[in-house]
Amino acid sequence: MEDRLKETEARINMYGFLSRLFIEEIDEDTLKKIKENPDILEMFPKTKEWEDFEKKELKKLIDEDLNVDFTTIFLINVYPYQSVFINDEGYINPTITNPALMFYQEHGYSIDLTETRALSPDHIAVEFEFMMTVAKDELEALKKGDIKEANRLRSIQKKFIEEHLGQWAPVYLLSARDIAETPFYYDVCDLALDFILSDYEYLVEKENEEKEEARN
């Protein structure tokens, strides 16, 4: 149980971190935390070796390099929306027929976009936030000793990756990574890609363990 609590907390933190990195340009405080925390910096290998990251003032780096790259990748070239990648027409779908929104509502969750820059509920940062929110609920169920509810919530997360996040985000992240001009946003895309794939493997493994225990 203790291991599962720690694993779930780590997953919550990572999904929250990724959501922050994709929803808007990086801020100085977040970049400083990345730079000064060796454990976090290890997740940004190309950034770690980037000369400008080491020598430039953070504000200058953000204004001259990172904000430009963020705009070029996410606002101009590769829109971070599931509907853009799934629909043949390639347009953003902000309506109530949006499949991601329907999934949220079907499982009892609502999404408020008024505090974000996302144009529809299938923005990659919103999908990361959804995973974080369900994982938080799983953690609360675990703390209450409600394993059945925790497992149900974990199955929702697995299903969401299978039906939504995993259907488009890997292809999107590869495309975004390939046009990144800075090591930082290359690392951001690579980190997100690796985490989605590894988290899905984790969820499958845990579900299989759960089924095996039920048989014994």
Task: Provide an overview of this structure.
- With 216 residues, the protein is mainly alpha-helical.
- The protein has 11 helices and no strands.
- The longest helix has 33 residues, at 147-179.
- The model has no long low-confidence stretch (mean pLDDT 95).
Offer a quick outline of the entry.
By secondary structure, the chain is mostly helical. The protein has eleven helices and no strands.
**How much strand content do the residues show?**
under 5%
Q: Output the helix-strand order.
A: HHHHHHHHHHH
Globally, the shape reads globular
The parts where pLDDT drops under 50 for at least 5 residues are none
CATH class: Mainly Alpha
Number of strands: 0
> How does the helix and strand content classify structurally?
mainly alpha
Instruction: Please name the CATH topology.
Output: TorD-like
Query: How many domains make up the 3D coordinates?
Result: 1
Mean pLDDT: 95
What are the main properties of this structure?
mainly alpha; 216 residues; globular; TorD-like
